[in-house]
């Protein structure tokens, strides 16, 4: 089963945390800390995740977290950037192997079906969890979540355009509406995986969804 694992982060992939100060190098692996924070936010969401949870997961004191990220909001934004960057890399790698628009759409749907199963599915999706809470966020938090959602929608529209151009996909009606319908379906699948409802009977879902574009 393919999981949406996170590759090692480059310094440009996310906002730079606060410096430890002149002559004081950071005493932790930033990528490792963010990977652990990502798991907390995937499992608990933003509002339910406490600084104590983040300290326990990252093995850092609250003082170290505040010094590096200014608090919970800062580590969430950095973790979200880390998560989205990793997810985008997984999707790009899978889609790059597709010889047609239809094959690209199959690969896209397959990534979500696979990520909805097993331990990966029960951990949940950080973007989906954030979308469920977005009405409680201030703009500094909500805008990056909306942007992450928008990039997924744009990726689907690009797949549609390729499939229509090469004749392998038929997109009836408004492509944006169709893209959102597909995205809602796949996000619902991630929610089902969170509570263990996507463990069986999902092998046929890729073909079922693809039939919408015949």
Features:
mainly alpha; transcription regulation; HTH_TetR; TetR family transcriptional regulator
Describe what this molecule looks like in 3D.
The chain is an all-alpha fold. It has a domain at 80-212: Tetracycline Repressor, domain 2 (Orthogonal Bundle), CATH 1.10.357. It has helices spanning 30-48, 51-58, 62-69, 72-96, 101-115, 118-123, 126-133, 139-166, 175-194, 205-210. The longest helix has 28 residues, at 139-166. The model is unreliable at 1-25 (pLDDT under 50). Residues 1-26 are annotated as: Disordered. Residues 1-12 have a biased composition (Low complexity).
Q: Give the full name of the CATH homologous superfamily of the domain at 80-212.
A: Tetracycline Repressor, domain 2
Q: First CA to last CA: what distance?
A: 27 Å
Total DSSP E strands: 0
Mean pLDDT: 86
Question: How much helix, percentage-wise, in residues?
Answer: 55-70%
Form type: elongated
The helix/strand series, from N terminus to C terminus, equals HHHHHHHHHH
Derived from helix and strand composition plus strand pairing, the structural class reads mainly alpha
Radius of gyration: 19 Å
In short:
The protein has helices spanning 30-48, 51-58, 62-69, 72-96, 101-115, 118-123, 126-133, 139-166, 175-194, 205-210. It is mainly α and 214 residues long. The chain has a domain at 80-212: Orthogonal Bundle (Tetracycline Repressor, domain 2), CATH 1.10.357.10.
């Amino acid at each position: 089963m393919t999981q949406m694992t996170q590759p090692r982060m480059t310094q440009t992939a996310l906002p730079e945390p606060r410096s430890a100060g002149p002559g004081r190098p950071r005493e932790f692996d930033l990528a490792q800390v963010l990977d652990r924070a990502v798991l907390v936010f995937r499992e608990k969401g933003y509002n339910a995740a406490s600084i104590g949870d983040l300290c326990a997961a990252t093995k850092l004191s609250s003082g170290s977290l505040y010094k590096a990220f200014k608090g919970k909001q800062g580590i969430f934004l950095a973790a979200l950037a880390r998560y989205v960057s990793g997810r985008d890399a997984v999707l790009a790698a899978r889609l790059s192997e597709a010889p047609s628009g239809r094959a690209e759409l199959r690969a896209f749907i397959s990534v979500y079906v696979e990520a909805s199963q097993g331990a990966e599915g029960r951990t949940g999706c950080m973007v989906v969890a954030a979308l469920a809470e977005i009405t409680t966020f201030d703009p500094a938090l909500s805008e990056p979540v909306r942007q992450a959602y928008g990039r997924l929608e744009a990726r689907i529209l690009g797949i549609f355009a390729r499939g229509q151009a090469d004749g392998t996909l038929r997109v009836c009606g408004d492509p944006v509406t169709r893209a959102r319908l597909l995205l809602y379906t796949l996000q619902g699948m991630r929610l089902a995986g969170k509570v263990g409802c996507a463990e069986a009977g999902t092998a046929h879902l890729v073909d079922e969804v693809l039939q919408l574009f015949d």
